[in-house]
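new request in #modeling-help
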Amino acid sequence: MPAHRSNRPLGWLAFGTGGFLVAFLLPVQVFLYGIAVPLGLVPDPGYKSTLELLRQPLTRIYLFVVLAFAFFHAAYRIKDTLADMLDMRKIDIVLAYICYGGAVVGTVAALWLLYWVP
Amino acid sequence: MAETILLEVARFLPERDTEPSYQTFEVPLRGDWMILDALNYIKDQLDGSLGFRWSCRMGICGSCGMMVNGVPKLTCETLLSTFAPGPVRIGPLEHFPVIKDLVIEMEGFLGKLQKVQPWVVRKDDFKPQREFIQTPAQLEAFKQYTLCINCMLCYAACPVFGLDPEFTGPAAIALAERYNLDSRDQGAEGRTDVLSQHDGIWDCTVIGECSQVCPKHVDPSLAIQQYKLTATKEWFKSWLLPWGNK
Amino acid sequence: MPQYSQFQPKPYRPRMSAFWYFDRWPYLLFVLREISSFFVAYFAVLVLVQIYALSADPTVYAAFQACMRNPLMIILNAVTLLFMLLHAATWFNLVPRVMAREMTGRQLSDLMVAAPNYFVFFGASVIIALFILRIL
Ligand code: FES
């Protein structure tokens, strides 16, 4: 395949963009929703207020972009991790289909869920 | 004899052995000795059949690379005394086929090197009447990469090369970048096909040890990632401007 | 590779151990960094579940929150946070270096390219936290 038709650059660009978004934006979300609120370290904003936040179009666009890129970032890296750790380079194509398939499913699910927020 | 230190040296005789084993030698522990001096002591005084490569003894020919306690090093500039009280384990560079004892087969590397055309390529009939003017900034762009001495330590540090022997590898890609970034060179396009393929830059998973072990402080890892950026830009250009040169 | 004649012995070809990443600390750190991707994927799915619970009704969301209070979930999320911070730190130190040449035309010092990322990280984290806690 001629080099400029290989689609590695596309996956790599999504990986890189996702890497930035995940690094900058997700840790605080993990900390608050995953640790601080359940442990009661911070006051729980509650169902109503959180749903109101989710209703904002900007919140939904933000979440969609972050989640979609996070999925594609993870897909690229999971594929490489399996190739390196388990020496699976020979079935690279199969891994790519599974990982990117998962990322597409996740992205479509995010789109669907965020579109149907009441 | 004053203080001594134990050296466990990999031995492999292809006519006799199926795989390498380690043989222990006791050598004087001298403050001014490099590992290479200790190996030469073994060869001169204890066992003349030990095989290893060296030439310059000053870290510039790149032929004395070996694994020292599992880390690739130029043995002519690695002090023996830093490993006291020992023992020190000396092996051939990792991931390469072993010809004898500490001598590795480097044909594969040389082939890759040739493929990336590490020389100034001109499309035109280049017959300058005077020096080619290069500004300090233009020199700075590639200077770091000219320092590579082809010692292959970066390959020995690269697990990806161990997993996939076809990987073009750190030094070859860094040298390709050295010429791509040179203002005299016009061969970047010709190198793209080798670099942008699966066994080229895209095989690299950014472990970064190549840059850590380089005795000349070349940064092959950075070269590879920067070339990924270049290749990505080229890729988009080829989609947006499909009528451009293919 | 050169051709070996019949009487010329063949070289020994080493094979990489399946657990090569335990050989040296830098390799282990690399593998841990890569494993962060599994946790990124896990957390993205968790956010999807949270959005679903929020969209459904208060009882479903209450069940979701009760599940999040499970000690095992808190431990899992703490591990997720650690892996994400590892990803962030390695990313901030490495990736901007790659881009610096493209953006400024020359190589900047490592600190110069890494430091701004940490500022952006803290700034963004504070703003997002204010939104999540509904202070903003
Ligand atoms: S002997 Fe020349 S580099 Fe070590």
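bot summary: Chain B has two domains: 4-104, 107-245.
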